[in-house]
Amino acid sequence: MMPLLDPALPSAELPVIKWGKLYGAAAALAIAEAALKATGPIIVITRNARDAEALGEEIAFFAGTAASA
Length: 69
Hints:
Helix 1 (26-37) packs across helix 2. Helix content is 39%, strand content 0%. It is globular and about 40 Å long. The model has no long low-confidence stretch (mean pLDDT 88). By secondary structure, the protein is mainly α.
């Protein structure tokens, strides 16, 4: 599957990446796609626990690991 967003990942030259203007579930899609090509851990910072919970559910959806109800 070809990624829709193909997000940039950190490198030796650019160790910190900040993404912006990702609306709705676009951030979760970018994180899920980044996780597929990352060789190490990905750290995501959210405003609060509620945002973290929602983002985790969206990432699971895009990664195909969401629990079915």
